[in-house]
Write a sequence for this structure.
């Protein structure tokens, strides 16, 4: 199993939900309002007057056989919408109850 943390501009919400649905990834935790700034490009998303946009984030645990397809779909979303911003990070899951 792998943990996937996906941080994205809120404008991606429907797209992310569709990717998870199509890959039958049902379990996740949604963080609806997340502030942050990209490390290389893009504007900060801080919910302030100067930087009004916000991010969201999802943490999901997926079987390894779904990981590659999930990351491919997320990469496609990011490439096709460069100005919005999307990052995904993967961790190993050592134990689950």
């Amino acid at each position: 199993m792998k943990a996937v943390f996906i941080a994205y501009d809120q404008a991606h919400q429907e797209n992310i939900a569709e990717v998870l649905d199509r890959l039958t990834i049902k379990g996740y935790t949604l963080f609806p309002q997340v502030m942050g700034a990209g490390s290389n490009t893009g504007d900060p998303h801080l919910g302030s007057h100067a930087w009004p946009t916000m991010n969201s984030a999802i943490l999901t645990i997926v079987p390894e056989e779904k990981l590659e397809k999930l990351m491919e779909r997320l990469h496609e979303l990011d490439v096709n919408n460069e100005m919005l911003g999307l990052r995904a990070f993967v961790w190993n899951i050592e134990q689950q109850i």
Observations:
- The chain has one domain: 2-92.
- Strands lie at 2-9, 28-34, 55-62, 86-92.
- The two ends are 12 Å apart (CA to CA).
- Residues 64-80 form the longest helix (17 residues).
